[in-house]
Design goal:
The complex is a heterotrimer. Chain A is an alpha/beta fold. Chain A has seven helices and seven strands; from the N terminus they run βαβββαβαβααααβ. Helix content of chain A is 40%, strand content 21%. Chain C has a two-stranded antiparallel sheet. A two-stranded antiparallel ribbon of chain C has the order 2-3. The mean pLDDT of chain C is 94.
Chain lengths: 192, 396, 101
């Protein structure tokens, strides 16, 4: 990992982009990193585009502005691609991860000339297969870890299992479902 | 042993409140401070604190509750923001003049309008003359540390003033970052018991609080209050010294960052200071002698100490995250420029009003300001002193 | 040091006043004679009084002492001469007159 990795999340109010952002901060914290996870708040409306940010670094980062030149962009809802300039400022050396059933090749033309790496993950299908409902958070978090490499994938899996056990206790089907979603997502992130 | 964790500024302050275990919390929710009473009421519901949580019908009542509880002999806390604090306005003054050391977690938010939920300092800056001690934080860590120090400062017998512990709304309150938490026992011992000499529930000692003062008495009580604010200065430093012993983190009236040989400097408050520190680090690598002063204590204002720190600097930009509509600069600018007046070789001073209603400010913005300061240092001409940054503007 | 209200007056310097104007005792109104604010004064006529006690709770300034179930003559220290007692007395036991008349 570089000394500091900056990530920008795009989602819609209610989809859990902020939660995923805070979970990523949690995961990175557990692996000994300095973290920032923060949302940018507008009017709080279900469905409105929202942005959240992560800074993950080896030393404490004191910068408290928003992130304008992210290393990674994560798009939790592909309908945002036409509504928001999601690749704005995104480093060519970085990558964008999009929740979509399409391939990266099929989406690239929507990315306003972005030349860096494009990843897709079908978070809806994975979520519905493993959890029985549409929670894009868990797959997107796994994809973020896989692509950004801010934490080691094995460490991530172990850490999340503990955290799910802590959170859901004896509800083993929920824990198992989430763990399946994570592992499947790590495997299925598709680069193009 | 201290524990490493990660939490938002709101959670950090709520956690400090839990460790302190005060007698009463009177609070009414308002963005972005809502999470504080939310977390705290969970602690209450779980039996983790002994606090009486009073869910009031307005912020005016919240502060009235706190004031009454403190007068009764208890330790009272509240949390609020923006218009919430504005609704407390009358009681802010009454609490301070009755010399009741209530502690408030203020999550700074623009004081509407146009209506806005995001950060600036217009709420607390507006209340700067209410008689409250004001501590400001750059990070969740500082918000936590300041809250732990607030009661030993405010409750000191030579002080007896309420304390406002401020952090930046959303930027600090909602950002999850690393934090080092102190042990419960250490916090408990550090804060100690609240032992007022006189309180309403002390039955052997009848007491009346908050009398009507005719003109023949009012001025004397205001002079007492002014003296108490002066007394707060050494107490703040003494509490910080004790805090360093338990935490290893040192605090003063302000943090002087790279100021030893600085030729130009910023003076600012809150989370933006962290962003500006990054600018300082980058410019220092280029050999530019830049520094900054981050104000922690705005009331009482560290006038002599600040003048001493800025003595010898060629040009200073004072950054105000609040308008005061004076037509000549923001509230921090007025104080800082006044502090510099008695220096024989005063630095040239400009004011930037920035970040209103959550307008972002970046590393590059500060670099541009430092450039301007070097230019002012070179020419000796400050130009227009009262400036704004970050707004869209037609080229002139 | 607990300062009595009687020790604080309009010549007391700020250093010697209580913090925030706190008062550490009850009944301090006994220190202030407001009985010289009157322009009218009630006069008690014991011969007409049936000790019905109607005047006592009506008095806003507690200026009608009661002992052993009977009202006594006025305590004028706080009586402001409002005349309410005169108005409510059913038995002409109180008259209302000009001060110094």
């Amino acid at each position: 990992m570089k000394d500091i990795v900056e990530i920008r999340w795009h989602g819609r109010g209610g989809q859990g982009a902020k939660t995923a952002c805070l979970l990523l901060a949690d995961v990175a914290f557990s692996s000994g990193k300095y973290v920032q996870g923060f949302p940018e708040y507008g009017p709080e409306r279900m469905g409105a585009p929202i942005t959240a940010y992560n800074r993950i670094s080896k030393e404490r980062c004191t910068v408290h502005s928003n992130i304008y030149q992210p290393d990674y962009v994560i798009v939790v809802d592909e309908t945002l691609l036409s509504a928001v300039d999601v690749t704005k400022g995104l480093k060519e050396s970085g990558a964008i991860i999009i929740n979509s059933e399409k391939t990266p090749g099929e989406l690239r033309h929507l990315l306003r000339g972005y030349q860096g790496q494009v990843y897709t993950i079908d978070a809806r299908r994975i979520s519905e297969e493993t959890l029985g409902r549409y929670f894009p958070n868990t797959p997107m978090l796994a994809a973020a870890v896989k692509v950004s490499n801010v934490v080691d994938a094995d460490h991530f899996i172990k850490d999340m299992e503990e955290s799910f056990r802590h959170k859901f206790g004896s509800r083993t089907n929920i824990i198992e479902g989430n763990m399946k979603a994570l592992k499947k997502s790590l495997e299925e992130v598709c680069c193009g | 042993m201290a524990r490493n964790d990660r939490m938002s500024g709101n959670e950090a302050v709520a956690y400090a409140m839990k460790q302190i275990n005060p007698d009463v919390m009177g609070a009414f929710p308002i963005t972005p401070s809502t999470e504080i009473p939310q977390y705290f009421s969970t602690y209450v519901a779980n039996g983790e604190v002994d606090t009486e949580f009073v869910a009031v019908e307005s912020e005016h009542s919240a502060m009235s509750t706190c004031m009454a509880a403190q007068a009764a002999g208890g330790r009272a806390i509240t949390a609020t923001s923006s218009a919430g604090m504005a609704l407390m306005w009358e009681m802010l003054y009454v609490t301070a003049s009755a010399r009741l050391p209530v502690t408030m977690a203020l999550v700074n938010r623009a004081l509407t309008g146009p209506i806005n939920i995001n950060n600036d300092h217009s709420d607390s800056m507006g209340a700067r003359d209410s008689g409250w001690i004001q501590l400001y934080a750059e990070t969740n860590q500082e918000a936590y540390d300041n809250f732990v120090q607030a009661m030993p400062i405010g409750e000191n017998k030579e002080v007896r003033l309420p304390v406002m512990v401020c952090q930046d709304g959303f930027i600090t309150s909602h950002a999850v970052e690393n934090i080092e938490l102190l042990d419960d026992e250490i916090v408990k011992n550090f804060v100690g018991e609240y032992e007022p000499e006189h309180y309403l529930l002390k039955k052997e000692n009848p007491l009346a609080v908050g009398p009507y003062d005719i003109s023949n008495y009012y001025m004397e009580h205001k002079k007492q209050q002014a003296e108490a604010m002066k007394n707060a200065k050494p107490v703040i430093l003494e509490v910080a010294r004790r805090f360093a012993e338990i935490s290893g983190r040192s605090y003063g009236f302000f943090e002087a960052f790279e100021m030893e040989d600085a030729e130009v400097a910023l003076v600012l408050i809150g989370s933006s200071a962290g962003t500006a520190k990054e600018t300082v680090k980058q410019l220092r690598k280029e050999g530019k002698k830049v520094g900054l002063v981050k104000i922690r204590v705005f009331r009482p204002f560290p006038m002599e100490e600040l003048a001493e720190t800025l003595n010898g600097v060629k040009a200073v930009a004072v950054m105000d995250k609040a308008e005061s509509f004076s037509a000549c600069g923001g509230p921090l600018f007025a104080e800082v420029r006044s502090a510099l007046y008695d220096l024989e070789n005063r630095p040239k001073t400009i004011n930037y009003v920035y970040g209103l209603g959550g307008r972002d400010i970046c590393v590059e913005d500060f670099a541009m300001i430092y450039d301007q300061l070097f230019e002012i240092g070179r020419t000796g001409d400050a130009g227009e002193v009262y400036r704004h940054i970050g707004q869209r503007e037609q080229e002139v | 040091m607990i300062k009595k209200a009687s020790e604080i007056n309009e010549t007391t310097p700020w250093q010697e006043m209580t913090v925030g104007g706190e008062i550490y005792e009850g009944g301090t109104s006994a220190l202030f004679n407001t009985g010289d604010w009157r322009t009218m004064i009630p006069v008690y006529h014991a011969e007409n009084c049936k000790h019905c006690m109607l005047c006592v709770p009506y008095c806003p300034d507690s200026s009608i002492p009661v002992a052993e179930g009977k009202r006594e003559d006025f305590d004028f220290m706080h009586c402001k001469g409002c005349g309410i007692c005169f108005k409510v007395c059913p038995f002409k036991a109180i008259s209302f007159e000009k001060v110094g008349a």
